[in-house]
């Protein structure tokens, strides 16, 4: 049994007077124990909404979530809010992009870590604070004894993200969901945090869902990568396979359009034309069709299905990029 | 890309310090943010100078100081032989037309109530260039065409465009004045990856067609390497290294540049698996209270017991135009000095905010 099995997860936002909007459209993927799974795609493709739906953190009103989120076999979508709250923090930890807004500004860091331990592990305050100090130390916060007493605004962004990681990992969850955990940080601080995450995941055996728009982050971290476009998974492959032979025209286009630190200079970038504003609804065809260089007639006759590939991945495309083209 | 190699822009020891005020009745200056603290560089006509560095290191302030959108505290700015800092009134306005800026966030830098047409005409009017209606209309349409937008865009409003299109409008607004220098502050960092490439290609095409000179400010090293001829790396208000784009990326010499480059994730698992990262300890120190000596010495894995902590290294030519501000650049390059562990020093975000003492959290038994 997978640790997490997301099946046909859909999230439809419905505001009064507006047309319903499908942000996540029958997304399925699974996470094995200890595995690191990437969700990548550009702004608005549904990464955060997927993770919020898994965590039961979407707003109470204005949206409809369907499908199944099986965590060790139990459907989280059917849990009562109390039980779900219990699961969060204990079984599933979460780290967001902006650590300042995820920490309580008026409670010292140490108490925020300790409270998680008290709530989920029944420790008393004294024991929880000792444990908290060790956790801050483990995530590389210098002088943890003093930091315990400080408030979030008194430490830097990188240190806040470390504190958040300490909170998320306090109860040794089996799954950690990180939504753009380093996007707001400088690149040298990002390197510190990614190294820390990798090390903690290795040491504790926690599975990780890494949500990012940065293909470089995925390349160094994820075992399996899911590429999202317009709310659907369009390609899924093992890390090396995806980067060596991207078969979906969108994945291929993305990898070709980013300037690389180690590439030959002076070459023109291969941009993907248009923008997501040009997408067509999946009900009419492949959402990417208006931007796609490989479009064929079938692409305008309903959504192409997600089908298994010969290399163990999945692909949603009528006319994939030939392997000869993708091999450099 | 380069035919002429005359400097169009020269900065000499430019400083921009922001006073920190305190006091309710009388404004008392209690300190300074040393945002830019002695930068000298020159930008050749028709070339692209890329400025990289982490947030707060003074990149934007330097760009704004160059255009006198903030007043430099000290130093010399020469644009096409003109002493920019001494310009006033009409002559400043004339010089400003020739130097335009593109901003990071296309939406917040465009007034949402103005149509694209009025956004573009605004600048022309300010410079008395919109008197002939027919000529102006033609100029607007040509500018839009140059940035890849249809003429129908003129009647629309910024919110009706995607992020990439809004950045094109931002570029059009700069371009319509026919400037010689464009300072682009993080022109693609708010854009999705697939759109970044479109905008970078557009900037390159425009440079080739019009012989523009660019100062491109970005935190993304891969973007800067792609587009710039010369790259300057900033750390805490100063340039720590400058070289041609190829040289810098082939052989970064300053310890900070090395760390910065080793930190950038590359979208290639084969490269990522083999990489050795130079992880810097701790955070960037505050520019209100920069470390003495070499500003990087509190985090430098190669720091030495002599000179580093008390003598500020000058940016010096180390080999054939490759400039480095490090006392030990040669020794480090030759491997005679090895990196060592660094104890992280804690840096407070606002520097000076007294730690709120909540008493003993852990009762001493
Ligand atoms: N509360 C909401 N009400 C209505 N629409 C929403 C809501 N939250 C998100 N959406 C929409 O759902 C879509 C997916 O949003 P989501 O936040 O998951 O994107 P993302 O992939 O995380 O993007 P980013 O990279 O910008 O974080 C977007 O079109 C967004 O505008
Ligand atoms: N108008 C201002 N008043 C006071 N401090 C400022 C002002 N503008 C920028 N700063 C400070 O100057 C430093 C450099 O800022 P900036 O040039 O924006 O950095 P970068 O663009 O490299 O991120 C920062 O510490 C910033 O907070
Ligand atoms: S299904 Fe068709 S339009 Fe969509 S990505 Fe594949 S080839 Fe392109
Ligand atoms: S001068 Fe010293 S501290 Fe500064 S970069 Fe060079 S070795 Fe490091
Ligand atoms: Mg998101
Ligand atoms: Mg800036």
UniProtKB/TrEMBL annotation, chain A:
<keyword id="KW-0472">Membrane</keyword>
<protein>
    <submittedName>
        <fullName>ABC transporter ATP-binding protein</fullName>
    </submittedName>
</protein>
<dbReference type="InterPro" id="IPR050388">
    <property type="entry name" value="ABC_Ni/Peptide_Import"/>
</dbReference>
<dbReference type="InterPro" id="IPR017871">
    <property type="entry name" value="ABC_transporter-like_CS"/>
</dbReference>
<keyword id="KW-0067">ATP-binding</keyword>
<dbReference type="GO" id="GO:0005524">
    <property type="term" value="F:ATP binding"/>
</dbReference>
<dbReference type="Pfam" id="PF08352">
    <property type="entry name" value="oligo_HPY"/>
</dbReference>
<keyword id="KW-0813">Transport</keyword>
<dbReference type="InterPro" id="IPR003439">
    <property type="entry name" value="ABC_transporter-like_ATP-bd"/>
</dbReference>
<feature type="domain" description="ABC transporter">
    <location>
        <begin position="6"/>
        <end position="255"/>
    </location>
</feature>
<keyword id="KW-1003">Cell membrane</keyword>
<dbReference type="Pfam" id="PF00005">
    <property type="entry name" value="ABC_tran"/>
</dbReference>
<dbReference type="InterPro" id="IPR013563">
    <property type="entry name" value="Oligopep_ABC_C"/>
</dbReference>
<comment type="similarity">
    <text>Belongs to the ABC transporter superfamily.</text>
</comment>
<keyword id="KW-0547">Nucleotide-binding</keyword>
<dbReference type="InterPro" id="IPR003593">
    <property type="entry name" value="AAA+_ATPase"/>
</dbReference>
<dbReference type="InterPro" id="IPR027417">
    <property type="entry name" value="P-loop_NTPase"/>
</dbReference>
């Amino acid at each position: 049994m997978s640790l997490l099995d997301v099946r046909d997860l859909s999230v439809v936002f419905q505001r009064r007077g507006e047309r319903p909007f499908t942000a996540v459209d029958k997304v399925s993927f699974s996470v094995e124990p200890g595995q690191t799974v990437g969700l990548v795609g550009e702004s608005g493709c549904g990464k955060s909404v997927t993770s919020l739906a898994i965590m039961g953190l979407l707003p109470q009103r204005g949206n409809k979530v369907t499908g199944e989120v099986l965590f060790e076999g139990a459907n989280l979508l059917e849990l009562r809010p109390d039980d779900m709250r219990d699961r969060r923090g204990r079984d599933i930890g979460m780290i967001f992009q902006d650590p300042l807004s995820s920490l309580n500004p008026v409670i010292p860091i140490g108490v925020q870590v300790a409270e998680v331990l008290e709530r989920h592990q029944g420790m008393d305050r004294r024991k929880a604070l000792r444990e908290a100090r060790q956790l801050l130390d483990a995530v590389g916060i210098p002088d943890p004894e003093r930091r315990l007493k400080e408030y979030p605004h008194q430490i830097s962004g990188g240190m806040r993200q470390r504190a958040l990681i300490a909170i998320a990992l306090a109860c040794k969850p089996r799954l950690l969901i990180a939504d753009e955990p380093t996007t707001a940080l400088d690149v040298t601080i990002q390197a510190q945090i990614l190294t820390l995450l990798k090390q903690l995941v290795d040491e504790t055996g926690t599975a990780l869902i890494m949500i990012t728009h940065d293909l470089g982050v995925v390349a160094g971290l994820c075992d399996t990568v899911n590429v999202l476009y317009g709310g659907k998974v369009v390609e899924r492959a093992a890390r090396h396979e995806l980067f060596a032979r991207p078969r979906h025209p969108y994945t291929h286009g993305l990898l070709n359009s980013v300037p690389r630190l180690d590439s030959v200079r002076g070459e023109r970038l291969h941009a993907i034309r248009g923008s997501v504003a040009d997408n067509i609804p999946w009900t009419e065809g492949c959402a990417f069709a208006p931007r796609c260089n490989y479009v064929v007639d079938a692409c305008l006759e309903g959504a192409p299905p997600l089908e298994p590939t010969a290399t163990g991945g999945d692909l949603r495309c009528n006319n994939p990029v030939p392997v000869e083209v993708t091999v450099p | 890309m380069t035919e002429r190699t005359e400097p169009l822009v020269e900065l000499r020891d430019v400083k921009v310090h922001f006073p920190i005020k305190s006091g309710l009745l009388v404004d008392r200056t209690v300190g300074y943010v040393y945002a830019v603290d002695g930068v000298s560089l020159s930008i050749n006509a028709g070339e692209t100078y890329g400025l990289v560095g982490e947030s707060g290191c003074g990149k934007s302030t330097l760009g704004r100081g160059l255009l006198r959108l903030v007043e430099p505290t000290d130093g010399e700015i020469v644009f096409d032989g003109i002493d920019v800092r001494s310009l006033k009134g009409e002559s400043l306005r004339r010089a400003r037309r020739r130097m335009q800026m593109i901003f990071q966030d296309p939406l917040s830098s465009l007034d949402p109530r103005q149509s694209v047409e009025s956004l573009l005409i605004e600048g022309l009017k300010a410079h008395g260039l919109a008197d002939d209606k027919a000529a102006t209309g033609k100029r607007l349409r040509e500018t839009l065409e140059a940035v890849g937008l249809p003429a129908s865009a003129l009647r629309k409003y910024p919110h009706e465009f995607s992020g990439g299109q809004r950045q094109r409008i931002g570029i059009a607004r700069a371009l319509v004045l026919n400037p010689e220098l464009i300072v682009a502050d993080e022109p693609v960092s708010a854009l999705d990856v697939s759109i970044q490439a479109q905008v970078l290609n557009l900037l390159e095409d425009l440079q080739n067609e019009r012989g523009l000179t660019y100062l491109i400010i970005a935190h993304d090293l891969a973007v800067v390497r792609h587009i710039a001829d010369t790259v300057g790396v900033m750390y805490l208000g100063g340039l720590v290294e400058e070289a041609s784009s190829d040289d810098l990326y082939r052989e970064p010499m300053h310890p900070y540049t090395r760390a910065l480059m080793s930190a950038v994730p590359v979208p290639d698992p084969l490269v990522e698996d083999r990489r050795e990262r130079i992880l810097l300890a701790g955070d960037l120190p505050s520019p209100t209270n920069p470390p003495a000596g070499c500003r990087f010495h509190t985090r430098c894995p190669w720091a030495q017991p002599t000179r580093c902590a008390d003598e500020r290294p000058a940016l010096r030519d180390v080999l054939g135009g490759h400039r480095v501000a490090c006392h030990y650049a040669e020794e480090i390059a030759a491997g005679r000095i090895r990196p060592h562990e660094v104890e992280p020093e804690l840096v407070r975000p606002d520097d000076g905010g007294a730690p709120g003492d909540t008493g003993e959290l852990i009762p001493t038994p």
